[in-house]
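Here is an idea for our session: we take a single protein and study its fold together. Which protein we use is up to you, so please pick one and set it down. Once you have written the record down, we can walk along the chain together:
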Amino acid sequence: MLSVGVVIPTHNPGDFWPLCLTALSMQQAAMLAPVHGLVVDSSSSDGTDFTSLPAGFGWLQIAASDFNHGSTRNLAMTHLPSDLDVVVFMTQDALLVDPQALSRLVSVFSDPAVACAYGRQLPHANATPVAAHARFFNYPSHSRSVSLADKSHLGLKACFLSNSFAAYRVADLQAVGGFPSDVILGEDMSVAARLLMAGKSVAYVADACAHHSHNYSVMQEFRRYFDTGVFHARSPWILAEFGSAGGEGLRFVRSELAYLWGHAPWWIPSALVRTAAKLIGYRLGRLESRWPLWFKRWCSMHKGYWG
């Protein structure tokens, strides 16, 4: 019987927050042991009430300027019981689909080779066709377990992982040094890559589901991919070990166009513009060392990262 903790970083979660809490509260009955949780809020200013949390959950507030995708999650770990077996990370906009979602995700840790796992993300009801396809492409209906040997045919996709709904065996997470302390994003992929290189496995659990999607504008797509380029530029070892993102990007574009042709062909022009924006953003991000700070801050989705 595994002891489990749940960590949710928040910042102005808004009207979606009560739905997230209700879904979390329903998980406890399906778990075989109490769940310890922590909400780490980056000084929300939208009036969200953090006093009514599920049983076993605590609340920690930090300055918005102190938030980082890696170090904040490491900080959260220090506020959870030290004897936890598994820690689950979620985001404030991920809504668990059913009362068994958490228990299904955690169940794969019965295999000692599994060091981390992530669940299936389904599009929200209001997702655009572009947003829906992104979820269907990255989160298929079948589960799998990936080891380092799979990088020969999966490439960079081998270390794909999303902390919107992911779990880690605490001992394995600590063995690779936890999350990188200063990353613009990609803290999940960085840990998954190091765990694979340490001989562990990454599990994808297709029957552990959460609704999570984003209806990004073209500019938001540009900025998100600029940040991805920055992450790859500052973590060159990941591309050196697993290969570049180019092949996977081309496969995504082909899949997206085929999906839109069959479901919403009027979205194809928008998808092509978005593809161009992503490519430009990513390449600018890969060259971020050449740009002045003001330009990087303007391009970035995570402007607080630049100080």
Q: What stands out?
A: The CA atoms of residues 257 and 265 lie 8 Å apart. The mean pLDDT is 95. Strands lie at 4-10, 35-41, 57-61, 86-90, 95-96, 114-122, 144-146, 165-169, 201-211.
